[in-house]
Amino acid sequence: MENYKVIIADDNADSKEIIAEFIEYLPDFTVVAVASDGKEVIEQVMKHKDVDVVLVDIRMPKLNGVEAIKICKEYVPDLKFIFITGYNDYAVEAFTISALDYIVKPVEAERLYKALDKVRKSSKHTEGISKRIVEDHNKRIIVRNKKLTFYIPIDEILFVEKNGKEAFIHTVEKTYITFETLDSIEKKLTQSFFQSHRSYIINLNKISHIETSGRTYLAYFLRYDKSAYISKHKISTVQQKLII
């Protein structure tokens, strides 16, 4: 049986104790550390970099939970976390930094267990990503413009952007231009890709973080300055594909 390591972060001692007691009933989860403020969250994550999930309050002394997690993710990019808070105000921001879940206090056992089940599924998803990366390695797609034929390694593609009659295939090193349709390009890609917007196809394996932009969302990618749009109708699907 896999054992999942947990850090609990809350400035309220009673809340920490209740959450810890709920977790005791799960044989595959173990609390390895607790924290009472944002700075302690960072310290404990740095000490336990192999932690599977951080259960973190938002309004805490010294540094709030959102800011603490952002700093932690600079050092542990794949860090998984669930916010447990008495406020609804931060839900949108929480999911734009890829929170697994957002629980509003008072915490009930079944609600916590449902959130922790996402940790289990996320672990399986990570294995799936590794498998997809292996599958994508050495595969290429063929696209053409008027004079040239491009052979583009699939695992180098960050996203595809449609602008008028042209489609731009973005990689870290180069952007390829073709007159093929998004539908035509999507059929050549693997399950690592998803059409997030009427004008964009994104590589789920390459996303570093997601930000809000008015009524839509922007996906950012590893080692690349440009972003891709995610429509408000697709954001929940993208989040699910990233964590399940």
Automatic annotation (TrEMBL):
InterPro entries reported in the protein's UniProt record: CheY-like_superfamily, LytR-like, LytTR_DNA-bd_dom, Sig_transdc_resp-reg_receiver
Entry's Gene Ontology molecular function annotations: DNA binding; phosphorelay response regulator activity
Modified positions (4-aspartylphosphate) in chain numbering: D57
Keyword list, A-Z: Phosphoprotein
Residues covered by the Response regulatory domain: 5-120
Protein name stated in the entry: LytTR family two component transcriptional regulator
Pfam families attached to this UniProt entry: LytTR, Response_reg
Domain HTH LytTR-type: residue ranges: 141-244
